[in-house]
């Protein structure tokens, strides 16, 4: 190869090396902005309190039960404390603990007695709001209720409409058990901005 061809090839190689060095220096000295320095507003935190009016099917409520057993262990009674009993429910959601207070929606779902001791219940339920500032929205919850405890915490994996992308937790507190069970539900959730 003659020397007249070597100079341009060497010059091209040098330009390539300089270009690569410049590219690497750009990446090193000017990294992309950190996602934690985003200009989007922070998520919004909310708390909402309402009450679930649970009426168990137990033969003493004149057929107005809203929580009924549908399956269980063969040869065992379908009772609230029997391991393996599965329930479906359609529960009124009200503004106060009184069953005659204003109804703001319903809670629909299933629960199963999953603890051998009869106190641990796995629940999956969705609150459907029909009035108030959350009307037309839903809030889904899932988790464990320990009926031997006064308070249980349950996850909020999501919601719809005004509660789209809601995440957080519910504090479920048994307010009364007689004549029917009333559960105070305090939903603590975040909705991304």
SSE ordering: HEEEEEEEEE
User: If you consult CATH, what is the topology of the largest domain?
Assistant: AOC barrel-like
User: What's the CATH superfamily of the largest domain, by name?
Assistant: Allene oxide cyclase-like
* Number of helices, where a helix is a run of at least 4 consecutive DSSP H or I residues: 1
Give the integer mean of the pLDDT values: 81
**Structurally, how many domains make up the residues?**
2
Based on CA atoms alone, the radius of gyration comes out at 30 Å
Walk across the major sheet and give the strand order: 1-3-4-5-6-7-8-9
At CATH level 2, the architecture of the largest domain is Beta Barrel
Helicity range of the residues? 10-25%
State the name of the first-level CATH class of the largest domain. Mainly Beta
Q: How much of the residues is beta strand, in percent?
A: 35-45%
Q: Please state the oligomeric state of the protein chains shown.
A: single chain
The biggest beta sheet reads: 8 strands, antiparallel, barrel
* Number of DSSP-assigned strands: 9
By secondary-structure content and strand pairing, the structural class works out as mainly beta
């Amino acid at each position: 190869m003659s020397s007249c061809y070597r100079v341009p090839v060497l010059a091209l190689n040098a330009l390539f090396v300089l270009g690569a060095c410049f590219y690497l220096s750009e990446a090193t000295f000017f990294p992309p902005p950190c996602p934690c320095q985003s200009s989007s507003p922070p998520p919004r935190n909310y708390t909402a309190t309402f009450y679930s009016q649970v009426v168990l099917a137990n033969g003493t409520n004149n057929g107005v039960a809203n929580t009924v057993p549908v399956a269980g262990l063969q040869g065992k009674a379908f009772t609230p404390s029997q391991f393996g009993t599965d329930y479906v429910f359609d529960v009124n959601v009200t503004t106060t603990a009184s069953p005659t207070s204003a109804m703001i929606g319903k809670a629909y779902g299933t629960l199963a007695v999953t603890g051998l001791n009869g106190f641990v219940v796995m629940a999956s339920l969705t609150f459907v709001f029909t009035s108030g500032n959350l009307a037309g929205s839903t809030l889904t919850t899932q988790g464990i209720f320990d009926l031997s405890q006064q308070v249980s915490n349950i996850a909020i994996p999501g919601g719809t409409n005004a509660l789209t992308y809601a995440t957080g937790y519910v504090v479920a507190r048994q307010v009364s058990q007689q004549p029917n069970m009333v559960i105070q539900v305090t939903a603590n959730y975040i909705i991304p901005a």
